[in-house]
Amino acid sequence: MDAMVNAAPPDLLSPEFARDPYPIYRTMRNDFPIHHDPRLGWIISRAADVREALTHEDYSTATYAAVRELVGRSILEMDGAEHGRHRRLVSPSFRGRPLASYGEVITEAADELLDELATRADPDLVRDYCALLPIRVIMGIMDLPRQDYTMFQVWYRAAADYVGNYTQDPDVAEAGLRAKRELDKYLQEVIDQRRAAPGVDLISSMCTATINDATLTDREILDFCSLLLAAGGETTERGLASTFRNLLDHPDQLDDVRADPDLSLRAFAESLRLNPPTHILLRRLLVTREISGVDVPAGATMFCLIGAANRDEDEFVDSERFDLHRTEIDVNTAFNAGSSHLSFGAGRHFCVGAMLARAEAAIGIPAVLRRFPVLRYRDGFVPVEEGMLTRAPRSLRVTLDPAR
Q: Coiled-coil intervals in this record (predicted)?
């Protein structure tokens, strides 16, 4: 506690944090597990406190007004019965038979991208694969025309940049909202068609979903598709990018995954823990509550530091190290609400698309390693993580040797 008295808490908006947040996270867990930043709110960093905030009924998710113009009143900020109704209508599209049918879509998208990657003079795993695979998969499970890939990629990047626009750049904000308007117009025509003649795709599934006579409105479907594109696409992109970065940084573990492709999911889950795609989740405290010895008032905005909680030494042995074999990671629970890491959230708001991300990793990671027996960084290249709310390497320039 002396450190808390004699030193100022770290600054999440500092250049030092932007360069490398992980030493700062460690300081916060040890010396400032909770503190108030007048610009942001109350910041918590220990795994126990973060998990409590994500699961306890004293905390509300109604804190995402900043992105409401982009994704509407989404499942992100719904509580109680409203959240339960919406989730029950949406979640069947991401499990069971629908999820199993997405495997063919993922395989086809991965193979097409790898064909293109093999022809690149300066291949970049992020630019040419990780950033493209989730969008092609989303379009595939929506059964949308291939010729619209480029347009969707523009909309995706604008939406993802909008979500991460914590500096409130007006040009970034306008580009995101323009993308939302264009996407809504495009998808409304698709919804009209699927309501008239449903298929076996994601949009048809949402159009026809019924539970106790409850259905999804066109507006709810449009907003969920925007959320899936902006949040689901980016988190999978960044999770894949960090996984390839960690494997390239640890050639011995890369060899392990080559020898046993089933280890791809362990590598993905461990990367989600060590380098989560989303570093911060927001909650609003509904009642006055003591957190790590500090009384926090009702109405407080809570910054839940996923990036810090996932490296909590009380939860993970040698927590700063990438180890796909660590015992604390169980692939049977790493993609559901029993997960030891918090990268998909926790409790009732556990990410509805987690199993889709799992499927993309299970297929997409081994596909790269099969296609390229030699995979290493390009000479002189050093990967750099970027981002505050979401974070991952923006580039992975590599040398490839395609399989004959």
A: none
Contacts (Cβ under 8 Å, ≥6 apart) of 186: 148, 151
Q: What is the pLDDT of residue 228?
A: 85
In a 3-state reduction of DSSP, which class is residue 225? Answer: helix
Of 221, 245, 244, 286, the residue nearest 384 (C-alpha)? 245
Query: What's the half-sphere exposure (Cβ side, CA atoms, 13 Å) at 25?
Result: 26
Yes or no: say if 41 and 16 are a contact pair by the CB < 8 Å rule: no
Q: In what helix (H) or strand (E) does residue 304 lie, and over which residues does it extend?
A: strand 301-305
**Bridge partners (DSSP) listed for residue 399:** 376
pLDDT of 4 reads 47
How far is Cα 342 from Cα 252, in angstroms, rounded to an integer? 27
Supply the pTM of this predicted model. 0.92
Six token digits for residue 359: 């499927």
Q: In this structure, what is the dihedral angle of CA atoms 29, 246, 258, 395, given to the nearest 10 degrees?
A: 150
Counting residues of the chain whose pLDDT is more than 90, the rounded percentage is: 68
What is the model's pLDDT at position 257?
Answer: 97
What tokens were used for 68?
Answer: 């409401």
